[in-house]
Specification:
Elements: H1 7-23, E1 57-58, H2 60-74, E2 78-88, E3 93-103, E4 107-114, E5 125-131, E6 135-140, E7 146-151, H3 157-166, H4 173-179, H5 183-186, E8 192-203, E9 206-215, E10 228-235, E11 241-250, E12 253-266, E13 284-286
Parallel strand pairs: 1-8, 7-13
Antiparallel strand pairs: 2-3, 2-12, 3-4, 4-5, 5-6, 6-7, 8-9, 9-10, 10-11, 11-12
Helix pairs in contact: 3-4
């Protein structure tokens, strides 16, 4: 058990022992006025209830830089590039990579290489997501006999669904930046206690500002055991996100997620077939809009008996 000793509890303990000794003095002892305690030696009362939240320290310029990043993504017509995503739990590390093109309204093209969900140590899985804004398709290399087909969701949900289905959404920040009108309020959230600039860096050969933030969730002991540390590297010239690191400090250890972006292109000319899907050879469509196959006819060709349901004349 962790010791709870502190100067305050030690002083309170001494005061309690003194009171007990005075209570046990014989009645015939001469009465004396109890000495008045010196305020400098009296411990303050112990706090009750949940611990007070830490003082917030928000650098206005650093927060403004984050808001400018959000606005840049909200105003984009199209964005393409690569994303590398890593999850480090200390004892093991997993990674994925994504090549993506996103365009408004509602168009998605994603090829993600992710860990095999059935065998994390086996060969990675390649997932392809394509939507032209009308139809939505998905194919995974570990299920080569079928592909997913459905109607596209309304803007902006289709882009978010594409990144989520592919498994290449990383921390989920990119779909938030691109599709949520309230992203500026959600990037940090209400539990943020610190926003400040870190040293500038060059990420993907791009001069970037670094903005660090801390989110505080009170642990039962009032410690910082549940703090989440965020670090954003944002291009100085274009306000595009080049890297984000999320570190969760938990009682059982830390977990760090890092996603890095490279070869970013915005509002560029896109090839006509960017959002066209070609079904893999031999694969069959599955999904909500796909009718099930018709039942095979009986071998003997028998027909329902007269009067049975299904034989009535119109």
């Amino acid at each position: 058990m962790t010791s709870r000793y502190s100067p305050a509890t030690a002083v309170i303990g001494l005061l309690c022992l003194s009171s007990l000794a005075l209570a046990q003095e014989p009645t015939e002892a001469p009465k004396q006025d109890a000495p008045k305690p010196d305020p400098a030696t009296v411990a303050p009362p112990l706090p009750s209830g949940p611990p007070a939240p830490p003082e917030k320290k928000i650098d206005a310029d650093a927060k403004k830089a984050l808001d400018e990043m959000v606005k840049t993504y909200q105003d984009l017509k199209s964005l393409s590039g690569k994303m590398a995503f890593t999850v480090d739990r200390g004892t093991d590390k997993q990674s994925s990579s994504t090549v993506f093109t996103l365009a408004r309204p509602n168009k998605v093209s994603i090829v993600a290489t992710v860990p095999n969900p059935r065998d994390p140590k086996g060969a990675p899985v390649k997932r392809t997501i394509v939507s032209d804004g009308q139809q939505f398709f998905g194919f995974s290399s570990d299920q080569p006999k079928s592909y997913y087909k459905d109607k596209a969701l309304p803007e902006p949900d289709n882009i978010a669904r594409g990144m989520t289905f592919s498994g290449g959404a990383g921390s989920g920040l990119m779909p938030l930046l691109l599709t949520d009108p309230k992203a500026a309020d959600k990037v940090l959230g209400p539990s943020v206690i610190l926003v400040e600039f870190g040293p500038d860096e060059k990420v993907d050969n791009v001069d970037s500002r670094v903005i660090n933030a801390t989110l505080h969730e009170n642990a039962p002991t009032g410690s910082n055991a549940n703090d989440i540390l965020l670090s954003f590297a944002v291009g100085k010239e274009d306000s595009l996100l080049r890297r984000v690191t999320v570190t969760a400090k938990m009682p059982q250890g830390s977990l760090t997620m890092t996603e890095s972006y490279s070869e970013l292109k915005v509002n560029g000319d896109l090839a006509a077939n960017t959002f066209a899907f070609t079904p893999p050879a031999g694969a069959k469509a599955e999904g909500p809009g796909i009718a099930p196959p018709a039942p095979a006819p009986k071998k003997d060709g028998a027909k329902p008996a007269p009067g049975k349901k299904g034989n009535a004349k119109p």
